[in-house]
């Protein structure tokens, strides 16, 4: 089964200082029929204006994954972390027993766009932790690069020697890919697993047992109990996307 959620179907939240597109119920958007996809609770596409941001606020028992698409995001938390996250950087914060953090745009003139994904952890009340990694483009060019993983088997099959994905306290793997025009990738989906694919830029053709689907920027596909997925970059520009394998 595959469900394509178009960019236009997402909930738009525009507060002037931040523009967000919510794929699932979040903040002022309440839809019980669209509350989560497995353990994926939130998938937000945020654009934060210069010199703006979220003041320090708490989280508990969440695995929070962020990926900076453009600009620079500043992260400060109660664990003593203060970090500038440039475009191409992935970040994982395990909130566990409780952590406070702020997210701001330090730039005076450039917005910062970043994806943020919330997952339920495999166990509650874990010790809070934080990690980040800048990902070079050649690491995910024309391949599925597991930038974040809570597993050691399937994700590691995609890693080259000396590569390490960020760890998350849940049985999920977040892959990043930049697929050049005309290139194809296969993803063998397991019967008991879910797949969430979100297209950041470009155009992507998705083929599976349910048929052929064309995705444009901001579109997502939610897939369950399907056959192997074939992804083809269909536009003149590369297709950049995040693919999440989850229970």
From TrEMBL:
Domain of life: Bacteria
Organism: Paenibacillus silvae
Protein name according to UniProt: Pirin family protein
Domain Quercetin 2,3-dioxygenase C-terminal cupin: 158-246
Record's cofactor remark: Binds 1 Fe cation per subunit.
GO MF terms held by the record: metal ion binding
Family: Belongs to the pirin family.
Pirin N-terminal domain: residues covered: 11-118
Record keywords: Iron, Metal-binding
Required cofactor names: Fe cation
Stored Pfam families: Pirin, Pirin_C_2
Residues reported to bind Fe cation: 57, 59, 101, 103
InterPro entries associated with the record: Pirin (IPR012093), Pirin_N_dom (IPR003829), Quercetinase_C (IPR041602), RmlC-like_jellyroll (IPR014710), RmlC_Cupin_sf (IPR011051)
